Fold this sequence. Notes:
globular
Amino acid sequence: MADVVVERKPRHRAAYALPTLFTAGNIFLGYLSIIRTIQAAVVYSTDPGSAALHLEVAAKTIGFGFILDGLDGRIARMTNTTSEFGKELDSLADIISFGIAPAILAYVWGVQFVTDSLGATPLDQLQRAGKFVSFLFLVCGAARLARFNIQKSPVLKDPGASDKKYFVGLPIPAAAGVVASVVYAAGSTPLTSVVWSFAWIGLLAVLAFLMVSTWRYWSFKELNLMRPRSPLMLVGMCAVIFAIWNWSQPVLLVMSVTYMMSGLIIKVAALIRRVLRPAAPKAEIQVG
Length: 288
């Protein structure tokens, strides 16, 4: 009896290419943000208005990259085309769009053009501090990505919640979102005040710490935007979109900073629960 050969229909390569296209788009937006930031640094001395426009575009491209970064993984899961190649490419895209791009933007916008009369030496020290902390932001972001890639089942310091619901440490896209939203909300005009520049450097240091911390942050992985669980959720989503459309600068700033602070809120709540939790009774030991 002749063997029957059953030919399996090969998967469409387009299905595998679709998530990769979104990841490539994320890389392009990160590259574009870097280019626009460099252009702002070049033209600021002769045309501050044009420099502010370049910085605004640089901040916006990071925000759009945030959207593409969220879509590529969801599309891969929806089409059942997840792969190790896609995961590695996504990590490389993140370090460009949410590590290098915001680090350069943070330094150029917040440190490079400080003009207060500090004198040459203090101003040089300020710029050195800005370079160091912006680089620290990049390194901590890279470490955060590396830990995420190897830590499939992270052990949290504050147990009691599903790993799928939480990230360990502030995700690097969220940290980049804080940088971009602050620049965008401030009108993209570079800082010139020493006080504000030091405050900005302090914020970057906090973001770097939060990325490598073990504090928990909501992952929203179980949130299905295509199928809202209740009419109230649908109304909430529409309200958020409406608010961003009409008041994008303050709304995006509040959203990004609130998420950044949520890790502290979860940490404090866990400590309070631990203090209020009744101690387990000690077992009595009988002698004789």
